[in-house]
Amino acid sequence: MNVEKFDRVYIGTGPISVADACHFASDDRNVLLVDDKARAGGAWVAIPIGEYGELEIGCHIWSYNKAVYDFLERFFELDLIELKPQPYFLRGNVKLGYDQKHAVTTLKSFGKRLSKGQVKSAFNYIRKDPSARIPIIPKKYLYPRGGARDIQQSIERKIETHRLITRLNSAVKSLRKIKENWELTFDNGDQLLTKEVVMTATSAIEGIEVDGQITNIEHTPIQYAHYHVVVKGKPKKPCSYVRVLNHDYIHRVSEITYQLEQNNKEDLTVYIVGVFDHKLPSNKSEIEIANDLLTYLTDRGFTTQENTLLYQQKNRFETTYISGHQRALVNAMPGLELMATTDLIYGFYYQLEKWFKA
Ligand SMILES: Cc1cc2nc3c(=O)[nH]c(=O)nc-3n(C[C@H](O)[C@H](O)[C@H](O)COP(=O)(O)OP(=O)(O)OC[C@H]3O[C@@H](n4cnc5c(N)ncnc54)[C@H](O)[C@@H]3O)c2cc1C
Predict the structure, then answer these.
(1) What is the mean predicted confidence (pLDDT) over 171-200?
(2) S-S: 171 plus which of 36, 167, 256, 339, CB 3.0-4.6 Å?
(3) Which residue has the higher pLDDT, 28 or 154?
């Protein structure tokens, strides 16, 4: 039986994998992108929400980095707009802007390193870590005009124009090093060979075998749970991305009405509310919880009491993160790269350094 052979295989079809594949692929280098989902895009996908069209599943914030914003605008041909209002943290009724929070976190991390005598590490953190910022003038956080759906559509266009081969609905289970190649085994038993493999920090690979030695990859499972809440009536207060800090089970709120495909003739408002699934009251139905969420939105002044619940949908996005110490182990294996991409913008920041310094 003939086994398919590639120069490089990407496990996952998130934006960074696809952009990296576009940079790497050429007429004499064949590339395959694999994903266990039915559509390319990774976490940046849109899903059907009742009769209201396709709406982003839960992503809704891009960390600030000008170089990355410029790159994404150019490369994915995105129209980036300022989040209005700018994202903020909410503890009770007290607000703290994202940039203010950044300054506090940066100073804390810097001080902590210094207090441990790690002077070099403290200055390296300030110089090199994209999250280390003490903004004097608050920066504008941007996001694509149509939300994650814009990114997903752009990813699909890039795959088409670069003629990248994809294999969707297929999970890679294990990797085995055979001489200069990696053998990939899929969930249905299929196998293929590739010189190089690029995984993301969320690639759920069970085992990697080199010279008969199997490394079982430890993953931390993460379940993102979001409710899409459709409300009859107009919003009272704009809300782009709010991190909720002191609630029993709500951790974020975004208003995404603008992502509705049809004209909003019916005066609808759509919210994504992020919840901690394991903390949801077990004695309540999904509709009761959605009504609780609406009460929260009303109490915080985002919507009004006259607005009623029209539709609710709870969505889960299950993912796993490869544990920190195993990342170094995986990256030391020849022909295997693990990209750290848990924050999209910072993930791109490191890739830009790689692409443009190379
Ligand atoms: C619901 C949700 C909301 C988020 N919100 C934000 C946000 O607002 N801002 C932000 O910066 N980040 C957000 N993130 C984090 C997001 O994961 C990163 O921004 C970025 O998309 C990570 O890129 P990635 O390619 O590593 O993983 P992903 O985008 O998660 O893509 C990995 C893909 O690979 C597939 N896959 C995994 N293992 C295998 C396998 N063995 N075989 C085949 N396919 C596999 C997965 O199903 C997935 O489709 C969010 C994540 C989720 C899940």
Answers:
(1) 96
(2) 36
(3) 154
For atom 44 of ligand 1, which residue has the closest CA? 35
The alpha carbon of 355 and the centre of ligand 1 are apart by a number of angstroms equal to: 21
Distance (Å, rounded) from C-alpha 60 to C-alpha 299?
Answer: 23
Q: Is the pLDDT of residue 2 over 80?
A: no
Q: Where are the chain's structural domains?
A: 5-53+63-71+143-218+323-357, 96-140, 222-318
Pick the CATH number of 5-53+63-71+143-218+323-357 from 3.50.50.60, 1.20.1560.10, 3.30.310.50, 1.10.357.10: 3.50.50.60
Q: How far is the CA of 258 from the centre of ligand 1 (A)?
A: 23
* Selection from 194, 190, 189 nearest residue 178 by Cα: 194
pTM for this entry:
0.93
Nearest CA to ligand 1 atom 48: 42
- Closest Cα to atom 1 of ligand 1: 58
What's the pLDDT at 342?
A: 80
| Cβ atoms 236, 302 nearer than 8 A | yes
Res. 221: pLDDT tops 90: no
pLDDT band per the 50, 70, 90 thresholds, residue 266:
confident
Residue among 59, 131, 143, 155 to mutate when testing ligand 1 (max atoms within 8 A of CB): 59
Q: Mean of the pLDDT values across residues 100-108?
A: 92
Contact status, residue 217 vs residue 326, Cβ threshold 8 Å:
yes
For all residues of the chain together, what is the average pLDDT?
93
Q: Average pLDDT in the 319-325 region?
A: 86
Q: Is 82 exposed, middle or buried (0-12, 13-18, 19+ CB in 10 A)?
A: exposed
Q: How confident is the model at residue 1 (pLDDT cuts 50, 70, 90)?
A: low
Protein residues whose CB sits closer than 6 Å to any atom of ligand 1? 11-12, 14, 16-17, 34-37, 42-44, 57-61, 171-172, 200-205, 224, 317, 319, 341-345
User: What spacing in Å lies between the alpha carbon of 304 and ligand 1's midpoint?
Assistant: 34
- Report which of 323, 345, 351, 353 is spatially closest to residue 131, judged by C-alpha positions: 345
- Which pLDDT value is given to residue 341? 77
What is the fold, at CATH topology level, of the domain defined by 222-318?
A: Alpha-Beta Plaits (3.30.70)
Confirm if 2 and 337 have CB atoms less than 8 A apart: no
Distance (angstroms) between ligand 1 centre and the Cα of 77 equals 21
Distances (CA, A) of 205 to 12, 35, 154, 303: 11, 12, 27, 43
